[in-house]
Amino acid sequence: MASHLLGYARVSTPDQDPALQHDALTAVGCYRVWTDTASGALTARPALDDVLERLGPGDVLVVWRLDRLARSLRHLLQLIDDLTGRGVGFRSLTESIDTTTATGRLVLHLFGALGEFERDLLRERTAAGPQAAAARGRRGGRPAVMTPTKLAAARALIADGDTPWPRPPPRSASPAPRCIGP
Questions:
Q1: What torsion do the CA atoms of 84, 88, 94, 96 make, to the nearest 10 degrees?
Q2: Proportion of the chain above pLDDT 70, given as a percent
Q3: Sequence ranges of the domains in the chain
Q4: pTM: predicted TM-score of the whole model, two decimal places
């Protein structure tokens, strides 16, 4: 069977344009490019499933960048192992990785580990922001509408019996009495 270059592109949102990936994949000789519009973290990627199913011995799966293919280093290595076991090669254009060579396989493992390390650092920095704010006494979310002054004024009106209702309202009529308490 003759070998073919099959391309796979992925964008995370419909607002993103996969044209850059398509152009690069077509320029290296991919006769067809499959495209998913989905977050890399999602497991359901129909175009990826389709291209993986169509790859045969001697074919090469080509992606623009490693992060367009796999959700994690583990997922990337599983995909590459599966492809290798089926006699299918893998190429990543941006990182110049070609798993049909020993050097390409080594570089793949190194880049994959560095990519996962970078994502872990980003996750840690993202989590550190709200923790630092909480340590300074700040909290996220919408600011409270009832300031201490407004709350005191509302409680005083209720205590004086000066309410806009002729009699106490049913509990379901307004959440205000529940919010300000007795």
A1: 70
A2: 85
A3: 5-119, 148-180
A4: 0.59
